[in-house]
């Protein structure tokens, strides 16, 4: 019934395979199971019993490599929201220290080194999304945000080697996917990156010792790192803690969540307008609607079941609900209403909604291909030319055949520019 994994050369740790069902007694694990968050756990029965009898402080770590997280991180943020909804305490761990190293998981090259000020600015910007989705404060189930630079930055190298290094074997570290796959592809890994898993394990131990944290959650790609922290905490402090991961999240087409042809789908307004954010969810695959509603909204499960069962073209109504619910959570109710109104005016009425992306056109005009790229509809002028050849570029609903067309507009004059059926913007003379 249970699969096993040896970690750090320590005794075996049991964890539940995603294929095995259990009947949970705690509100927390019942909620996570019903919504589709559970993939693996280090000790399902132990965590279930703990969550049934007391408040469980649980954390997820986020590195601050950009001013915003993208929707690939949203399932983890929602996990913290579910933790709080079930009466437990969410801990948001910002990787002010680990950002300086870079998680090698799934990467072929080292991260760009960021300055201390950039990391601090990124953390301040990222906090806005957590402020929308979690309740922060001093209460027993209020969320708190901590920064691992506060303790990792004070940790001496000799101290780290003596206290922590003895619990890690190089043999085991080389077997981790984050290391093994990188080496198999003959991509270099710096010694700096090699230490990431040690510091992540130390984070769990520190939080368990200083804040009573009993649970680390994360994506399935973090399973090995999480189990390392569980074992390190047990070996150094004889304390039992737990790990839980979510399934690898991809769309029905197999694409990784958070990425599109036009780039990342950022959670913060400064990095991606609310209308584009709304459109991402409105344009999801029919097969993804129910799953996304369970993961990314607070709608009741019976209502979600009704929506995902809508036949044929009626499923589009469920996609609008999905887009509105997720946008309202991440950007606010006003942003959701404005985005829906813009979509309705643009697609249903053939007009120009007020929330569409706008490109200011100077008096000397702008070339059609350059306008497509400036609006973010194409990645380059070369791609814009290809889209024109394909007949995918329209100006005021007329198909264009010349990417070099010079567009001149009088001050205040507007024209609609579209690439494909879903990328629509406004050109405005200034």
UniProtKB/TrEMBL annotation:
One of its GO terms (molecular function) is RNA binding. Keywords: Aminoacyl-tRNA synthetase, ATP-binding, Cytoplasm, Ligase, Nucleotide-binding, Protein biosynthesis, RNA-binding. Its EC number is 6.1.1.1. A motif ('HIGH' region) lies at residues 64-73. Its main location: cytoplasm. Belongs to the class-I aminoacyl-tRNA synthetase family. TyrS type 1 subfamily. Catalyzes the attachment of tyrosine to tRNA(Tyr) in a two-step reaction: tyrosine is first activated by ATP to form Tyr-AMP and then transferred to the acceptor end of tRNA(Tyr). This is Tyrosine--tRNA ligase. It comes from Novosphingobium colocasiae. The gene is tyrS.
